[in-house]
Amino acid sequence: MKNRDLTELHQEFVNERRYSTRRSPATIRGYVATFELFQKLMPGVDLNTLTIKTLNEFFKRLEQRDRVVGKGEIRNGVRISTIGTYRSKLNSFFDWLVQNKYLADNPFKHMRYPRIIYSDRKFLNKQQLERIWLAVSLNIDWHSPFIQKRSMALIGTLLNTGVRRGELIQLKVLDLNLEKRELHVRGETSKSRRDRFIPINSAAYKLLVDYLKARKEKDYKNPYLFVSNSRDQRLSFDGFKHFVNKVIEGSGVKFHVHQYRHTFSVNFLANGGSLAALKQLLGHTDLRMTEVYLRCLPTHTLRPDVESLANMENLI
Fold it and tell me: pLDDT tens, 195-253?
């Protein structure tokens, strides 16, 4: 087993994933954030102390740590799905260490994977969506009609396409084909690294047309679709975070952006969309990833199918 600094090795791993295997920017950020958290909670860990005991202690500290959320609210504990995400990111690094002979064995091989319960994959209900829309379209002071139209287009695109945050922010004007009414999510911005095309429904189409008209009046030339509040440059991740926080404050609905992806998926299935079509729209590489949303369907959406069995003529 070679003796190298763990931080340097992780940087080497990240560079390989970024440049050689071309992982998405979101995946790279996940690797970095997870390792930084691991180092923060387990300072001083090196190749010699990377053991099952060390990892168990990491997840214990993760569970018990206090976190500041919102306006100074203190919380502790962590969702099982989050544990699964952290484990997945670290596992990729540990496998890389084994493959490159820095580590004799991946300690995760001898630890059972947590049983993920997807009930925390919550979607936004109709009442919450209406409160958010009322805030974005009427109640929040955006300081200019242009920013209001941009805000409405951002929310409308999230709700009606299911795109991820990073995909949304990195959309370019040329990715939007108004004639065909479709959105092109480029592989370079997608988690799956694959191109996909998403049909734009009438609601999203109107919001995007209104936004582009307002943008044209400002004579903006930036190639990215969504621009910042005050200048002709791409809306940054920090700028988008500020936008989301403003919507949360203005609507009184606490949400995270990925819930819009869940909301799109559950509503697509609840309204008769097929699992195969949803897989394509979301850009999943494995149907099992999409099947998760079947478990999220609320009971009332299943009632018509169950009620059909009350008719003897429908029985086989």
Answer: 999 999 999 999 999 999 999 999 999 999 999 988 999 999 999 999 999 999 999 99
**Residues 280-295: tens digit of each pLDDT:** 999 999 998 899 888 8
Q: Rounded to an integer, what distance in angstroms lies between the CA atom of residue 239 and that of residue 263?
A: 23
What is the CATH architecture of 6-116?
A: Orthogonal Bundle (1.10)
pTM, rounded to two decimals: 0.76
Residues in the chain: 316
* Residue corresponding to tokens 């009414």: 181
CATH 1.10.150.130 range(s) for the chain read 6-116
CA count, 13 A, side-chain hemisphere, 88: 11
Alpha helices (H) along the chain: 6-15, 25-41, 52-64, 80-99, 126-134, 145-161, 165-169, 202-217, 237-251, 258-270, 275-282, 287-291, 299-307
**CATH assignment, 126-301:** 1.10.443.10
